[in-house]
Design a protein that fits this description.
The chain has about 200 residues and is α+β, with helices and mostly antiparallel strands. The chain has 2 domains: about 120 residues, Glycoprotein, Type 4 Pilin; about 70 residues, Hypothetical protein ph0010, domain 2 (Dna Ligase, domain 1, 2-Layer Sandwich), CATH 3.30.1490.150. About 25% of the residues lie in helices and about 25% in strands. Strands 1, 2, 3, 4, 5, 6, 7 and 8 form an 8-stranded antiparallel beta sheet that branches. Helix 1 packs across helix 2. It is globular, with a radius of gyration of 17 Å. The two termini are about 15 Å apart.
């Protein structure tokens, strides 16, 4: 699955950093650049992840699971939200900008996984390929595909952790009233703060 070129991915990662840097300078939200590739105006889901460097500890991660905004606009919005609105962390400080790396995950639309019984879910998921959304009532949790790879989870543990992310019991995926969706992602990341951008291999 290569919807994005490496150049388009690098464009989005640099845009994510620029949006945060510009906000520190002027407190304004930047507009999509004039040289934005046409494809990046298509509506796509996207997440922007900010991590400390070199330790690669999570510093912020927010995005849009559904394709509700043009990708370029969604990336700008998600980068600012990750930097300043992730409730798990204090807002990013200007001095931290040179000590973090940006990662952009461009998502496919979530697809409901259809099973005859919930115990079949693990067989319908592939770690290193799929991200997950678990939903029951008002509770919803999402984990990007790279998270399962980073922690070495198998499919069952991935489902369990996604339930916990949704603030549901760990075995909520076995409840017939729970919906499970999967999606894929193309991930691009800075190798170092303001450094070259590479496509991240998930498997």
């Amino acid at each position: 699955m290569n919807y994005m070129t490496d150049e388009e991915g690098a464009f989005l990662v640099k845009l994510a950093r620029r949006a945060v840097a510009e906000y520190f300078s002027s407190r304004r939200v930047i507009d999509p650049p004039r040289d934005t590739p046409p494809k990046l105006y298509e509506k796509r889901g996207v997440f922007v992840t900010i991590e400390t460097y070199p330790g690669r500890e999570l510093r912020g991660c927010i995005g849009f699971p559904e394709p509700v905004y043009p990708l370029v606009e969604a990336t700008i919005r998600a980068s600012l939200a990750s930097a300043f609105e992730d409730p798990r962390f204090p807002p990013l400080d200007r001095a931290e900008l040179s000590k973090v790396v940006f990662e952009v995950s461009v998502l496919t639309p979530p697809q409901l996984i259809k099973v005859s019984k919930p115990i079949e879910y693990p067989s319908k998921i592939k770690v290193g390929v799929d991200g997950l959304i678990v939903e029951r009532g008002l509770f919803r949790g999402l984990l990007l595909p790279q998270v399962a790879v980073e922690y070495g989870w198998d499919e069952e543990e991935f489902l369990t952790q996604c339930c916990l992310k949704a603030m549901l019991p760990p075995d909520a995926w076995l409840d017939p009233n729970t919906k499970v969706y999967k999606f894929q992602a193309e991930v691009f990341e800075e190798e170092a703060p303001e450094g070259p951008v590479k496509r991240r291999k998930l498997s």
